[in-house]
Batch of 4 targets.
Target 1
Amino acid sequence: MKGASSKNKVNLIRNGQQFIDANLELISQAKNFIFLHTYIFEEDQITNKILEELKYAAKRDVHVFIIFDAFGSQDFRDKKIEELNRNKIYFSFFTPFLSFQNYNRRLHQKVLIIDNLHCLLGGINYAKKFNLPENNYPWLDYACIVSGEEVYNTFLKVLPLYKKSFPSHKKLFNSFRAPQVDLTNVSMVKTNLNDWTRNKKQIFKSYLSAISKSESEIYLLATYFIPGKKLLNALKKAKKRNINIHLIFGSKSDHPVTRIIENYFYNWYLSNGIKIYEYDKSIIHGKLAMIDNHWITIGSYNHNFISRYANLEINYEILDKSFGKIIKKEFENIINNSTEIKEGSLQSKKNRILVGAFYFLTNLVTWLSLIFLLKRKKD
């Protein structure tokens, strides 16, 4: 895995109380600086605990910088922003969503960096309705904490975002150096970005590369899964090499149209010998994959044109057999609580035509929005 670092410790974080506690613990350990950016952050009794912990950090003279996506976090109040500023916490929105030029380019990353020592990174947004909903399971979602030398590489990858959002602090950011790391762990970790307007396609390419090199088994937690031809062809070629492929979908979704479009491919998966499952305990939001029990990726990237061409996305790519055992148990547990989809349970031909129409219209809207990104890229 070219460009990966080896001195790292990796811990899996599940959505729910574990995710909230991980944020609070990491923030409480900060001594120098905190970077936090995310797509959705809603004010509630869960997230306010995190904001309070950030205030305590600022009182300890920790430099705290926060960036929320202006569309995903559009309900974050001006009053709360003023309160953060009074507590010496620096805040910025990523691209106003009412800007016609920028509405289709979103900050979809979820990253918390502490002193270049620890990084919490994944697909989990910040809101009680996702993390600890009333009378329901948390959304099925994941993040991981990486501690070690790769954290500084992650910092360098996201640094341009902070320099643009807080230009008067560039000199300060340049002083945040890589600390000495004394770890004997052998977890290989690499930070991958997808940012099409800046020619960053690392996450997408890492998936294709890992699938093409697969030798035994592929597990993929598939949320908002609307794959393009390259990914479908890679899966098809893998299956021809007798690779066991498991795709896990959610029977529930916060985007019903996307869920309908996902069904459009069911016939194709089954006709190519790919196993598909539907999980119904809660909404699936995780972006997690494992190949051959040792290659793992966790992050914000979804397999659709929005993630591939419009959003800013970030994933960790991990090579670790020990961590792979943990992820394997996680996938086995999900499958044991899911229903395998057989050919007889598929939709009628009439319904598949309707689903195909949804798929066509969605792609048309996506491509029309990308025209504005193309224009801005040329500009």
Note: The longest strand covers residues 188-195.
Target 2
Amino acid sequence: MPTAPVLRRAKAADLETIVQFNLSMARETEDIILDAQTVRRGATAVMNDPRRGFYLLAEIGGRVAGQLMVTPEWSDWRNQWFWWIQSVYVAPEFRRRGLFATLFGEVHKLAAGRGDVAGIRLYVDKENTAAQKTYISLGMQESNYRMYER
């Protein structure tokens, strides 16, 4: 990557970028058109309540190039947190440059520094083999869990 990205937590001024990234991600990955107002309220809720998680952004040349959201989940089995990575998006012109790996590395570093995070998890569409290869290349392993929802 020619210019090293600047990693930082999102602030209020980033809200519209996060909303647009989330809308784009849903369209690109699942062919879903989300309601922008609902996404805006959801992102605002995260930004206003650190217990819900946080957004980590990567800036290149003063422009937000990528994002992810970390959502904490308490594990009574481990008496520690799991951090779930969600809402991953890298703007098309910044893809294939290792930006997600940089963001993931920062999440790993932040989690390790706390001492109360048992692991980092994420979910991926079964058909998204490119993302799966990326996650494996970063040292992640497929878990023995399947996800169900209602």
Note: The longest strand covers residues 63-75.
Target 3
Amino acid sequence: MPENSIVMKGKNFTITVIYLKNISLNCLKKKLLKIIKKSPKFFQYAPIILNISKLSYSINWKEIKNMMFSIGFLVIGVSGCNNIHVKNFLLKSGIPVLLEGKEHFYSSSPIFNYTQKISKSVKNELKTQIITNPVRSGQKIYFPNVDIIIQSNVSAGAEIISDRNVHIYGVMRGKVLAGAKGDVTSQIFCSHLCAELVSIAGEYLILENNSKKYINKMVKIFLKKKKIIIQNF
């Protein structure tokens, strides 16, 4: 068998996280259907992660997976699980348990020390990444721990993702996500806003009729009380 017959690489993907609260399954389904109705193509068979950090009761995981699939979501993992018994149950059920942000389970593995060494070295990296070429449909631009500056146009279907701020000096027609690791102070600056979706620190906004007054305008986008605000700039 050739040595390069299997290639394994780390990749970054934008995945929606649904934070479950203490409401009934039917109520959750109704709320999700209202969100999906606003942009059905965007959410159709979208992979999602369920965050259960706010739950104080047990869940029938088979029921919730079937419900999510029935409305067009594919559950690929669970985060926010701080109960070791629930974690073990999920893993035995074939549901991956993911770490999100600062949450962690105790481990004696040396990998935690290794991760801490990496995070210290990141502080010495460049604070800005400049992209001069157009970003084509299907392309995804992501650089960790830096501002991203795009000096050209971003096509529909492209994604710009930054852990910090995003500056776009061309026409922005794709999706732009700032504060990808949860930095609520991150902002987005666009000279010509035509984006399909904007997001800051996990909060997102799909540009609809009530946002048309900002289309093709120079704007700044920021987070205020967990709500995305768009202002002329």
Note: Residues 106 and 112 are 10 Å apart (CA to CA).
Target 4
Amino acid sequence: MKFFPIVVIIPSLNPDNKLIEVVNNLFAAGFSDLLIVDDGSRQDCQKIFSELTKKSGCVVLHHEQNKGKGRALKTAFSYYLENYDPEKYYGIVTADADGQHLPKDIFRSAKALMAAKERAIVNALILGTRDFNEEQVPFKSRNGNKITTLVFQLLYGKRINDTQTGLRAISNNFLRKCLSISGERFEYEINMLILAVLQEVYIEEVIIETVYFENNRETHFRPFRDSAKIYGVMFASFIRFTCSGLVSTLVDQGLFALFQKLVFISLDSTFSIPLSTLLARICSSYLNYSLNRSLVFNAQKTHKNALTRYYLLCVLQMAVSALLVTVIHIITTWNSSLIKIIVDLILFFISYRIQKSWVFREKIK
């Protein structure tokens, strides 16, 4: 068998003979190394895994009990990094066990990863993207993916047309980062995309054929529970960002009152109000910066100029807010307080995106 520098990883739970067919087809397509993860399958499925272990180039790893797709992938990633020579292998490609990913598409994704390697791109993620507008796509899959794609783009500034694809080719360098990603089930794959976007990993989408068997009846995806986890992952940092803003606002108001009533009580209001406002804002804004850095964006090793960027953004945000409120009020004669609420809400969301992508950006090495 001719050597091929990409290892195919297939997590599997309670497979049927289709898995053996998938493996045979992958070998026939030109792959030389496969890693199969038995994620706690039933006893009657073990004969299938036993059959696979007899095949040259096929390694089967076992979980004693079901731990979820995310954990199965991390088990395989860890085994690959410990047992396969990074000088010989370019990376891995993950595929589903039910045959929904065709060998030709798995091979094309692997070749795209190899092409990235040849262009000296060490951090690469290739996504096998399905066309959800095709007639055979189940209604819940089509609309669920479109919503997830939109939400992901709004929160992270990157359009990914198939956020839940299981067909992913990953370079060795980025794969090491993937071991530390949280998530045990399907939310793990969203976390992988978030990390790739935040750390500016090279992402390429390869269009693949869309295949569903019996309206996707055999999927192990739990629509309500797993969808809730996926959306929880996507919104987690924005919710923390909102809480950080609320805490900082309360501190700002509290310090303002404290300075007014205790520190500058002897001064005329002409001086006490500006001084109280300035000192309260300095303290609350630094608190907001610290919370965002450590708890919201988890950017402990962030750029040394992050604090300067943060305050530059704050000043710009205040200036834009004042300008927009003034202009809109003049044009519409609407209530200025209402206009400010709307404008500041929009700027709050924009600030989240800018802080995530610029202020606290951490580029992967």
Note: The beta strands are 6-12, 34-39, 58-63, 91-94, 124-129, 168-171, 202-207.
